[in-house]
Amino acid sequence: MASGLRSAGVRLCSRVFFRHLTALVLMVALLAASIAEENQSESADNGVWISQSGLFKVGYESQQHPIAINRMHSWVLHVATADGQPVANADISLTGGMPAHDHGLPTSPRMTQYLGNGEYLIEGMRFHMNGSWEITITISTAGNRDTVVILLEL
Ligand SMILES: [Cu+2]
Question: Which CATH number fits domain 45-153: 2.60.40.1930, 3.90.79.10, 3.40.50.150, 3.40.190.10?
């Protein structure tokens, strides 16, 4: 009788413990999910990157949110001077890759259209694996040429 009571008590205790553990696991999972979501939106949102000699400020917007692995998509680059004036009709070329893996981009993205207001359409972006990518963009105008490196964590 006494041992029966005790084991019932243990069973009740373990059930309460299990319920708390479930709640804890759920909380940790939610926290991890919200951190992951923050990281994703950070890589897909407009950030402003300064070119190496400080001539241009470059922002980009991916047409795909979040950027999916192995999916061809476009970017829109926004190019401005150091004091924030939109840069029109620049020549823009891109290279990129994963320095840690010593490989380049799987595609050859190209600037295909000047959209006005300092915005340029880049077609042919695709990333074939998760990890740290670098996109190196060279911008040339009549009198200036500078390079900006955009870091992208996928
Ligand atoms: Cu790689």
Answer: 2.60.40.1930
